[in-house]
Amino acid sequence: MTDIAPELLEKVQKNFEELTAELREEIKQGVRSYEEAYDYAKRIGEALSRSLGVNITPEILPDGKMYYNIADKVVRPMLHAEHELTSAAAVSAQKSANKAAGIGIRPLEAKFDDDRAQGIIDRVSSQPFEEIKWILDEPVKTFSKSVVDQTLEKNVEFQGKSGLHPKIRRTAFGDACPWCQAVAGTYSYPNVPKDVYRRHANCDCVVEYIDGGKIQDVWSKKLINPEDRVKMMPESTVRKLDPHQLQATLQAAQDARNVSIPAEVDGNFDDFAALSITENEAKELRALRELSQNSAYEYATVIYSDHIEQGKTSGLSDKVQIEISAEDGNGIKLFHSHTNVTPLSREDFSFLCNSQVDEIGNIAINGDIFICRVGTGVRPTKEEFYDETDIIASEVDIDIQSHPMFEQWTPEERNYMAIREQAYRIARHYEWELEGGREDE
């Protein structure tokens, strides 16, 4: 089979360079503010999205699918090109901001976001292109915007470690979504949550750098007295959340999730490897599901190397507590039931931090089965796992809002899709083997 990637990359590159030729020249002349940098980021993202959309269609792809090797050879280098051009604009804006503030520090450049790029490549190569082509639209545009946000974050952190005292204010205007409202507020370095720098598609929040007694809008460079900014804001956006309040607000949103499967993904497991469980394992999972159907409690079965403990329960609808001791040996498999339709949760995945556990799995109340094995993947410590999955969860909550069906989904469907995407990304991050399928009725 002919490798279409080199020719395809050449076409996309040529189109992108033509669409951004004037922008390149403008950026070379200097970017005066973060407002300009953000505008450039939007235009650069739109140019790449258009270049990819015009040149990549289901008809030219083998079997109508962008296989991983094609995505890796075409999309990855174009994301690097997008990052390089946007970064040039953001660094130039930071240089102007430093000069205006009388700070003689060389601006820093944000690193290429490998994880976000890998996520785009993995997703666009996971399904028929016609079904997943939206990944090359809004997520690509958001990728460009995030370069500006990451540049601000890196320079604020560096200035703080250099003995300066930068502050960040994020303001949510108008009908801002609950997530944006939760992260709105004023933060002093080093107590600046990473979520302050994150944004979803079409987000209009204002992130500001506070210079001394005045505020500098990071996208307009205009200095504003704090009292005037409060007067300008609608009362609903005047929020004072410290980091602890912020975490409590976000955690409450997570804990209250009710879920429902969108019709278009019900029974679709294209994102997951096919189930490869034994008939005995399938039998154990069916038994757990039946127990939950009859009691509304979660149940678990633990498969040790030499025996099985079946039907363990804590008498709770949302968790089952399992304790593993050193005497239990290695190679343990943990199967449990969910009383709703969700796949493996972050807490479920955390069991794989234990070197004694090789495999976890759950069966949802509707018969959906999800299995995850460490295999040859990475086994993090508990601390590493929770730090890294905090970031993954935040990114999913932002990125899910760029899905073309987001506005059509109910809140319960949005919650399900966020939980499902989180499971996918956690497994991918640690290179674990994740399988999915449905138990036959």
Short description:
The protein has helices spanning 5-19, 21-28, 34-55, 68-100, 114-124, 129-132, 138-161, 178-183, 226-232, 243-255, 279-295, 346-350, 382-399, 411-429, and strands at 167-171, 185-188, 206-211, 214-217, 223-224, 299-303, 308-313, 332-337, 357-363, 368-373, 433-438.
Strand-pairing-aware structural class: alpha+beta
Arithmetic mean of pLDDT: 83
Q: Note the gap between the termini.
A: 41 Å
| Total of helices | 14
Order of helices and strands: HHHHHHHEHEEEEHHHEEEHEEHHE
| Fraction in beta strands | 5-15%
Q: What value does the Rg take, in angstroms?
A: 24 Å
Total count of strands: 11
- Overall number of domains: 3
Shape: globular
Low-pLDDT runs: 212-243, 245-257
The major β-sheet equals:
6 strands, mixed
Fraction in helix: 40-55%
> How are the strands of the largest sheet arranged?
7-6-8-9-10-11
List keywords for this structure.
441 residues, alpha+beta, 3 domains, 6-stranded mixed sheet
How would you describe the overall organization of this protein?
The protein is α+β, with helices and mostly antiparallel strands. It has 3 domains: 1-155, no CATH class; 165-256, no CATH class; 279-438, no CATH class. Helices cover 46% and strands 13% of the residues. It contains 14 helices and 11 strands. The chain has helices at residues 5-19, 21-28, 34-55, 68-100, 114-124, 129-132, 138-161, 178-183, 226-232, 243-255, 279-295, 346-350, 382-399, 411-429, and strands at residues 167-171, 185-188, 206-211, 214-217, 223-224, 299-303, 308-313, 332-337, 357-363, 368-373, 433-438. The strands form 2 sheets. It has a 6-stranded mixed beta sheet, with helices on both faces. A hairpin with a 2-residue loop joins strand 3 (206-211) and strand 4 (214-217). Helix 4 (68-100) runs antiparallel to helix 5 and helix 13 packs across helix 14 (411-429). The model is unreliable at 212-243 and 245-257 (pLDDT under 50).
